[in-house]
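Severity: low
Component: inverse-folding endpoint
Summary: output formatting inconsistent between runs
Steps to reproduce: submit the following structure tokens with default settings.
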């Protein structure tokens, strides 16, 4: 029996001691006055009586009741039932609270409080104080407490004639039966009726089972208030130890919600802070770091706002708020969804029927109390499903004197298949579960509903899963049981208690609550106590039984592991391989090994391996020979590599006994065990793994201790697995039996058993100390590898896993460290770490298993000795194992080297691992897994080379080669990877190069870390030599001049002095000026190259103005005399090109005929004006040399505008320069504010500059005297509307090209109207258009709609367009009289190119496989790189310039410093405009002129030396080549060179094999003596130093650089499409050939070099055998050459066989082409050979400049982008081009029109019996043919009538089916040698015109 109530307390309001406004609770009386011995009086009750604080109230409130819960220090809960009522304040109290009252009244007047109710007859200003009756009890009978306190209050209020002392005394002496008590059938025992002596009667029902919580209706209410999802998330939060806070205005609801949540957690018990009602004074408890469940009045919601990690449930509002930083893991699926649906069936049964057409009559919903139990039943089932089979994972470590039980968490998670599940993981690690194990793990105890559910109902729950009704039935059955537990005797539940009358609180009570007489109450209590002492003590009689274990566990979700579904075939392979190994059939085993290693990814295969090996150990076959040992170790390693540190599938546990069994003899007396080879796995350094193993083994031995010898069949039972035979009793059963017998044993017997168990644990601890030292001490103890690589051991010093923290383990280990006589500190390190690890382990398990402290001390002393002994045995093993003959590794394949290339580091053995490109690893393209490959990496003076063979034996003996030039290395990082063969973690390197290659290598273990480090250092040294002379291109041929001093070191002194003097002068000058913030670069002298340029070398390297022109050239700067320099300058590429373009020649007197507009100026021959320009420059004839000096100051890097190309047709010139510098645009449009009144230097410069530009304009013949101009507008109008320039300013904006092209997509090409209509640019409106048109109005159009005279238009265009950077040209105010116009465009910066290239590299050559394989991820990363967007911009700007030049205006490109983007644009423009540059010779000339002579900084951009290392690689030239490649794709017949040529240049401009692309300008090349050395010293057959020379030599031997489709049209200006959708990713970025490495070093790719007289491109005779061509391995063009190369090869082979010296391929090819032409044309007309006639009509199309006729005049609109897709290629542009000639100005007609002499629609009669059809016919004079198409916009030609075959054109007659409405005379026939074509035009005139046109074509021919 237990006391119903422990204390009765009366608490009243009292003033606050510090006189603050609030009052405080005071305990007036408490009974009994002295504490019970078993239950002291709880402190702080007065706080909990009024949780919101003690306050006076201006009106009487009705009495309130709630139950608060206090938890004492022993985790016992005390239920405090509080009934509060209000009484008028007595005068004494009032005086004490005077101030308080005044405040209150003021507040009341302000409306701060509720106005007094009229029913209260209180005097004004009357206040009421709260008083509380409190019952304190350890039992939770809330209803009884409510009734009892209510009775006491009723007696007081109603003034009943009952003695209150008696009632209180009876209450305190009342006893009730214990829960789950003797459970007699008599109702008196189970349901106790009590009376407090006031004519009342109450029945107290005690629950049947103590363990089941009592919830009444609280769970149902909680669901009603919050809903299913919210309650589920609160449930998960409480289980995973988050903080939960309930808010409500009702205290009763807070208490109920907390109770409900706790009831849901059963069978787990909440063990953290639990305060259902938290008083306001204790709110700071909420910031505690530990989890809690707390309820707080909603009035204090504001105080909870700043709690960041608390989940807040608002009961009144029905919301649950989870903060962002808190992650509440959900239940594992499918349990989450199942639970959700069952809950909704219980709460809302009508939901299922809501959609039925004929819903059944609604069944009555169950009562709230019943619904409450049903909801709890759902959660009970949920726990049974979650924890099903948990008893199979219990380890019983001790049985006597008390059971010690451990839970094998990893095995449980592994077997349930929930290893990754966040929720279950956290629950199992939580405190609640630890309590669950210690409480419910006990094998012999009383059982309850949950035990039965887990043991017997699992199968039923599984079966019911898919039948909701059956689930519901089960829930209802469980609910019945829960209900019966709470209400065991429903029949007797009758209460009779006096209640106060209605509104009794408003009536004035006769008197305050009286003071009770302590004596009376105490006397009643003492009486009862005396009576109790006579009675026997109340014993909780338990029915204890063996707890049933239930069925073994199953996975929550039957997942088949997809890829490795464990088919019997896999297990068969594993078994076969093992039997081969043990039978010594090594070859067979070797074949199977890869398959076995693959199979071992599956769990079943790993188990199978462990079992098979176990069998062999039992048969005493554990001593192996070397090969067998290697095989077994490899398989074990493979098994263990996928083991997590938890080892949830017990694989490591199964292998642990085996690794100490298998061994091999190294020499007499020295044996190596397998454990020394499988130590590299994380599982061995995990303390939890060792603990679980230890407990498992202890359990096995303890079980054996108590089993009869006969029964003990399987001592080595597997951890956590069911016993194999039915009659075997599990360890838990044995323990249960022993616990039952324990009380019956004698004392001696008990002692003996305890000792036996203790010594069992002790012996296992010693055994495990040995095992752990085996697996933790490395074979070579000098390597402290273990400390570095095993997180478990390294962290142990800081994070102790031991429960007994300051145990003796630490101290013993430390003393061991200091006293052990180790000389080698490192060894000591390893040994010390292992000793500490083992000591901690021993400490933990022994304290938990109750080993005596003496034994523990003994163990601590033994551990260091065990470790020391083991280290000594290992030393011998290590020594002997080194003497073993090494395993035969494949021999290293030497790479082939170029002549002159030397090996720096010989082969280091490495594995080449697969990177993100899947082809090599046998990815989606199929093919063999060439990677990973095993081989070696070589470092030569030129390249990094890997050669090796695939590790996969099925691939065969393929050689894998990957290499790249050292100079191309862009990134190198250390990685740690698993080697493919033995799966150990290895050091590795990942090297990435800008030739789009990636070497991801793992070093073999034989390569020491020193060698790997040396490799990195050497690589770095070669990649960034301190001086350019250290690069391969220089070291290659210079063996004959070993120590050449730097040229002219002595004489250069003065020039540098001059330079520095000037720098100082200029620095003084520029101090006054505001510096441009971007740091500029100026090429320093040779000596300065090592360090980056100084800050103050800004832009001002110019010789000061005062010097006479003649002193400009520091004569001593260069060695050769002027004259010699001049003559060699004349031979430079630029001059040859200038002469070709007719821009001038140099006579000996350096003077020119004045009639020529331009001249070649030698002003820069000493590189004094501009270091980065060539020596000879083209400038206007009228400008004197000394003026150039001043002009150059206005431009960055002194790169003033010079002419680089002139159009042969329109005579417009293309100029280039650096960007203007200074604030705004200094000289061009506005003078600077000169500091002095006189003319400042800046002023004179800008004047000179203006003169200079004027001279350029006037040197163009047709602009010499023209004054009119027009603005270039509409080029890209999408953004122009936003800032319409003022009418004076002529600024044309090329805005963001992407947006522009987007707006143009819908519009017909190049028409103003269309732009206006396209909606996006309505801001542009008629304003700009009409203004531009109106200002320069043309004459009225002629009557027939033809344009006015073309002559009018010429002056309308600006003479010179300056393309500049938008950012620079801000604030421009042009002068209306000037004849140039600015086109500001937005260009990307060099750093954007660099960033974009990095991303492009990663996209094309990813370092690791993409998360989602497939083309999408590649395309996404390609788009992110924005590389194609930059290509698009370059092409777009270039086409703009081409258009302008073609229309006769000159263009000056003046962007950035003039050596990056300017060079790209200028070169592209020349390539598109001038067919000469599209030949091999011309392209070379273009690169030499624009890139080399004009100072593109190849060394700086390619980071060639140490100085450039920080700036990194920026592929400006590569970007240009990519643009050329895009144009090449669109116009394949226009280029003489092939795509391979571009790739070749792309590869070698970074490779540093040739000297061509080294250094930053001609000046530097001269300084180094590179430019003219070839003249004097002709080397023999040494390697070529110039890439051009190499190309020339190679072209003689092989057509690899030649494009067979080359058939140029001389007049063609190319206008490529530049939309991103029209661009293709260059295959240079993505292709690779693993068979031979990059194909760009021809000697290496082509087999050994052949004798020079035998000029064959490929020496091997073609073999007829078929061969497989693998993707990414073989070179496809080599394996399958195109037809022409094939025929040329065949010819050479036959000639060689006949003994004739083979002819050069080019001669053969030219002869064939000539013959072809003559054959096709008897009269010798030259056309492209029919070999080459390819149907690429689109590629011929060029987009043009079209003019639109405006109402008043005309504007020029440039349409650049065409968004063609093959169907609608340029439909709109074609339509525009072909409206009719009348709408186009003849001078602007596109080049296209030259291919189409006449076109129109004709009806053509089909062949015999076919109908007439309308077709679009094109008469082409150039190709001499009549072509026809289906429609006007078609690109696909339907047929061709060759005019050469036409014999006659005659009038025809209509035949059957001809068009009816047409006149007879509109028919005509064309008769050819083959057949007669019948045509019909739309009317007679057009028929006549067609006949005339065809006739004239025939006569022309």
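Observed output (run 2 of 3):
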């Amino acid at each position: 029996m237990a006391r119903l109530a422990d204390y009765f307390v009366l608490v009243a309001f009292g003033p606050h001691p510090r006189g603050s406004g609030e009052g405080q609770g005071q305990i007036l009386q408490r009974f009994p006055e002295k504490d019970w011995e078993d239950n002291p009086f709880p402190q702080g009750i007065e706080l909990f009586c009024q949780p919101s604080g003690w306050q006076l109230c201006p009106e009487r409130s009705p009495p309130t009741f709630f139950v608060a819960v206090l938890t004492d220090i022993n985790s016992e809960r005390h239920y405090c039932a509080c009934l509060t009522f209000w009484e008028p304040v007595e005068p004494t109290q009032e005086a004490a609270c005077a101030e308080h009252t005044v405040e209150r009244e003021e507040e009341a007047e302000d409306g701060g409080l509720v106005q007094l109710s009229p029913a209260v007859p209180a005097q004004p200003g009357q206040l009421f104080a709260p008083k509380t009756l409190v019952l304190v009890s350890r039992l939770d009978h809330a209803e009884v407490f409510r009734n009892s306190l209510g009775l006491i209050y009723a007696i007081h209020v109603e003034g009943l004639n009952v003695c209150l002392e008696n009632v209180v005394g009876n209450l305190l002496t009342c006893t009730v039966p214990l829960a789950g008590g003797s459970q007699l059938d008599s109702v008196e025992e189970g349901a106790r009726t009590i009376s407090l002596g006031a004519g009342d009667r109450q029945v107290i029902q005690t629950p049947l089972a103590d363990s089941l919580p009592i919830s009444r209706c609280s769970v149902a209410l909680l669901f009603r208030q919050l809903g299913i999802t919210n309650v589920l998330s609160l449930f998960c939060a409480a289980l995973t130890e988050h903080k939960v806070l309930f808010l409500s205005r009702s205290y009763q609801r807070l208490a109920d919600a907390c109770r409900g949540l706790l009831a849901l957690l059963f069978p787990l018990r909440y063990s953290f802070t639990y305060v259902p009602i938290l008083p306001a004074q204790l709110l700071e408890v909420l910031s505690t770091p530990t989890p809690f469940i707390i309820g707080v009045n909603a009035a204090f919601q504001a105080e909870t706002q700043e709690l960041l990690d608390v989940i807040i449930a608002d009961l009144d509002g029905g919301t649950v708020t989870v903060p962002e930083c808190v992650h509440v893991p959900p239940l594992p699926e499918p349990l989450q969804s199942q639970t959700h649906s069952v809950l909704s069936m219980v709460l809302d049964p009508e939901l299922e029927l809501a959609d039925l057409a004929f819903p059944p009559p609604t069944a009555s919903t169950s009562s709230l109390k019943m619904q409450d139990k049903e909801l709890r039943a759902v959660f009970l089932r949920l726990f049974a499903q979650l924890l099903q089979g948990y008893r199979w994972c219990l380890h019983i470590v001790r049985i006597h004197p008390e059971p010690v039980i451990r839970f094998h968490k990893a095995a449980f998670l592994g077997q349930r298949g929930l290893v990754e599940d966040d929720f279950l993981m956290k629950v199992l690690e939580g405190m609640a579960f630890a309590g669950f194990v210690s409480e419910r793990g006990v094998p012999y105890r009383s059982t309850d509903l949950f035990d039965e559910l887990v043991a017997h109902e699992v199968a039923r729950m599984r079966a019911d899963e898919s039948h909701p009704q059956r689930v519901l039935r089960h829930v209802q059955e469980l609910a019945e049981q829960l209900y019966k537990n709470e209400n065991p005797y429903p029949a007797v539940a009758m209460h009779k208690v006096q209640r106060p009358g209605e509104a009794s609180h408003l009536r004035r009570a006769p008197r305050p609550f009286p003071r009770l007489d302590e004596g009376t109450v105490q006397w009643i209590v003492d009486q009862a106590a005396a009576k109790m002492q006579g009675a026997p003590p109340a014993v909780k009689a338990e029915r204890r039984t063996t707890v049933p274990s239930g069925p073994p566990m199953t996975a929550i979700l039957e997942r088949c592991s997809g890829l490795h579904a464990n088919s019997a075939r896999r297990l068969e392979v594993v078994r076969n391989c093992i039997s081969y190994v043990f039978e010594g059939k090594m070859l067979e085993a070797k074949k199977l090994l890869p398959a076995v290693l693959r199979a071992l990814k599956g769990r079943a295969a790993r188990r199978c391996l462990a079992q098979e090996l176990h069998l062999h150990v039992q048969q005493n076959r554990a001593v192996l020979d070397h090969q067998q040992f290697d095989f077994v170790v490899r398989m074990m390693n493979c098994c263990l590599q996928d083991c997590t540190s938890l080892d949830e599938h017990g694989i490591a546990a199964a292998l642990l006994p085996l690794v100490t069994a298998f061994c091999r003899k190294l020499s007499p007396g020295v044996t190596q065990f397998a454990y020394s080879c499988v130590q590299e796995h994380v599982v061995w350094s995990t303390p939890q793994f060792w603990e679980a193993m230890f407990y498992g083994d202890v359990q096995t031995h303890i079980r054996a201790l108590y089993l009869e010898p006969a029964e003990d069949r399987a001592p080595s039972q597997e951890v956590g697995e069911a016993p194999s035979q039915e009659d075997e009793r599990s360890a838990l059963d044995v323990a249960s039996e022993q616990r039952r017998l324990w009380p019956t044993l004698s004392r001696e017997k008990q002692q003996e058993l305890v000792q036996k168990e203790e010594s069992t644990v002790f012996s296992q601890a010693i055994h495990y100390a040995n095992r752990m030292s085996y697996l933790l001490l490395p074979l070579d103890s000098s390597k402290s590898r273990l400390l570095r690589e095993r997180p478990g051991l390294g962290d142990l010093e800081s994070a102790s896993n031991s429960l007994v923290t300051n145990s003796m383990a630490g101290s013993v280990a430390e003393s061991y460290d200091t006293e052990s006589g180790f000389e080698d500190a490192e060894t000591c390190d390893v040994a010390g770490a292992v000793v500490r690890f083992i000591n901690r382990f021993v400490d933990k398990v022994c304290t938990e298993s109750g080993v005596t402290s003496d034994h523990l001390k003994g163990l601590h002393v033994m551990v260091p000795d065990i470790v020391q002994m083991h280290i000594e045995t290992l030393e011998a093993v290590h020594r002997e194992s080194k003497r073993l003959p090494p395993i035969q590794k494949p021999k290293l394949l030497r790479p082939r080297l170029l002549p002159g290339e030397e090996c720096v580091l010989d082969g280091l053995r490495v594995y080449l691992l697969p990177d993100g490109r899947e082809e090599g690893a046998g990815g989606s393209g199929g093919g063999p897994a060439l990677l990973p490959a095993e081989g070696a990496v070589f470092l030569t003076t030129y390249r990094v080379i890997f050669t090796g063979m695939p590790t996969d034996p099925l691939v065969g003996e393929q050689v894998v080669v990957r290499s790249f030039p050292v100079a191309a290395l862009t990134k190198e990082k250390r990685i740690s990877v698993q080697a493919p063969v033995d799966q150990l973690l290895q050091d590795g390197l990942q090297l990435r190069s800008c030739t789009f290659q990636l070497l991801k290598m793992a070093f073999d273990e034989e390569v020491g870390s020193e060698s790997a480090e040396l490799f990195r250092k050497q690589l770095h040294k070669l990649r960034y030599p301190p001086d350019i002379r250290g690069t391969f291109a220089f070291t290659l041929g210079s063996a004959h001049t070993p120590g050449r001093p730097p040229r002219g070191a002595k004489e250069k002194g003065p020039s540098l002095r001059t330079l520095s003097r000037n720098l100082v002068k200029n620095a003084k000058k520029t101090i006054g000026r505001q510096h441009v913030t971007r740091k500029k670069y100026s090429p320093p002298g040779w000596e300065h190259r090592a360090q980056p340029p100084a800050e103050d070398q800004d832009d001002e390297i110019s010789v000061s103005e005062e010097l006479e022109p003649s002193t400009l050239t520091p004569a001593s700067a260069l060695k050769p005399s002027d004259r010699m320099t001049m003559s060699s300058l004349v031979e430079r590429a630029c001059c040859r090109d200038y002469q070709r373009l007719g821009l001038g020649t140099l006579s000996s007197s350096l003077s020119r005929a004045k009639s020529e507009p331009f001249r070649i100026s030698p002003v820069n021959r000493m590189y004094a004006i501009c270091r980065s320009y060539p020596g000879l420059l083209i400038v206007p004839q009228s400008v004197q040399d000394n003026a150039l000096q001043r002009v150059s100051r206005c431009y960055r890097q002194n790169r003033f505008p010079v002419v680089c190309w002139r159009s042969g047709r329109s005579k417009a010139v293309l100029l280039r320069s650096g960007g203007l510098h200074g604030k705004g645009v200094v000289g061009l449009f506005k003078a600077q504010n000169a500091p002095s009144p006189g003319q400042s230097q800046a002023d004179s410069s800008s004047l000179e500059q203006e003169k200079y530009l004027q001279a350029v304009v006037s040197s163009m013949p047709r602009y010499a005297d023209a004054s009119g101009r027009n603005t270039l507008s509409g080029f890209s109008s999408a953004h122009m509307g936003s800032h319409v320039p003022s009418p004076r300013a002529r600024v044309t904006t090329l805005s963001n090209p992407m947006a522009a092209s987007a707006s143009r997509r819908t519009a017909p090409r190049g028409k103003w109207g269309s732009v206006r209509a396209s909606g996006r640019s309505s801001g542009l409106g008629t304003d700009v258009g009409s203004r531009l048109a109106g200002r320069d109005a043309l004459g009225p159009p002629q009557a027939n709609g033809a344009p006015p005279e073309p002559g009018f238009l010429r002056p309308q265009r600006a003479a010179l367009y300056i393309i500049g950077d938008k950012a620079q040209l801000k604030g421009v105010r042009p002068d209306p009289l000037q004849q140039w116009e600015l086109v500001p465009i937005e260009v990307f910066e060099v750093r954007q190119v660099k960033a974009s290239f990095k991303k492009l590299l990663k996209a094309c050559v990813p370092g690791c496989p993409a998360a989602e394989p497939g083309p999408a991820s590649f395309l996404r990363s390609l788009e992110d790189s924005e590389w194609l967007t930059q290509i698009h911009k370059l092409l777009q700007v270039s086409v703009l310039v081409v258009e302008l030049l073609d229309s006769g205006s000159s263009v000056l490109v003046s962007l950035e410093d003039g050596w990056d983007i300017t060079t790209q644009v200028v070169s592209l423009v020349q390539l598109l405009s001038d067919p000469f540059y599209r030949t091999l010779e011309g392209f070379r000339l273009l690169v030499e002129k624009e890139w080399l002579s004009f100072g593109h900084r190849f060394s700086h951009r390619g980071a060639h030396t140490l100085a450039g290392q920080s700036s990194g690689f920026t592929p400006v030239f590569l970007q240009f080549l990519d643009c050329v490649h895009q144009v090449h794709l669109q116009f394949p017949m226009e280029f003489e060179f092939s795509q391979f040529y571009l790739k070749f240049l792309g590869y070698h401009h970074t490779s540093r094999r040739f000297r061509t692309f080294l250094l930053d300008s001609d000046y530097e090349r001269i300084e180094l003596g590179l430019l003219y050395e070839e003249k004097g010293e002709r080397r023999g057959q040494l390697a070529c130093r110039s890439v051009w020379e190499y190309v020339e030599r190679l072209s003689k031997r092989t057509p690899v650089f030649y494009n067979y489709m080359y058939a140029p049209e001389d007049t063609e200006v190319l206008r490529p499409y530049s939309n991103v959708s029209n661009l293709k990713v260059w295959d240079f970025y993505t292709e690779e050939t693993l068979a031979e490495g990059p194909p760009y070093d021809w000697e290496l790719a082509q087999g050994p070099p052949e004798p020079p007289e035998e000029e064959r491109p490929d020496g091997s005779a073609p073999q007829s055998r078929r061969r497989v061509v693998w993707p990414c391995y073989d070179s496809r063009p080599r394996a399958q050459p195109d037809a022409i190369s094939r025929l040329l090869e065949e010819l050479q082979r036959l000639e060689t066989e006949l003994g004739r010296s083979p002819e050069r391929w080019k001669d053969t090819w030219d002869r064939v082409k000539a013959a072809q032409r003559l054959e096709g044309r008897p009269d010798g007309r030259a056309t492209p050979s029919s070999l080459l006639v390819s149907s690429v009509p689109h590629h011929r199309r060029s987009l043009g400049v079209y003019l639109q006729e405006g109402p008043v005049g005309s504007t020029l609109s440039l349409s650049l982008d065409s968004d063609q897709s093959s169907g609608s290629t340029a439909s709109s542009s074609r339509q525009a081009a072909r409206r009719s000639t009348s709408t186009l100005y003849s001078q602007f007609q596109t080049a296209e029109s030259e291919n189409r002499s006449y076109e129109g629609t004709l009806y053509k009669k089909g062949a015999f019996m076919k109908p007439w059809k309308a077709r679009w016919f094109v008469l082409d004079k150039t190709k001499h043919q009549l072509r026809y198409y289906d429609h006007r916009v078609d690109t696909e030609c339907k047929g061709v009538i060759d005019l050469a075959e036409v014999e006659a054109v005659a009038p025809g007659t209509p035949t059957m089916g001809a068009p009816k409405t047409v006149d007879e005379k509109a028919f005509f026939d064309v008769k050819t040698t083959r057949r007669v074509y019948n045509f019909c035009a739309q009317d007679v005139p057009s028929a006549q015109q067609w006949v005339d046109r065809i006739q004239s074509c025939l006569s022309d021919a």
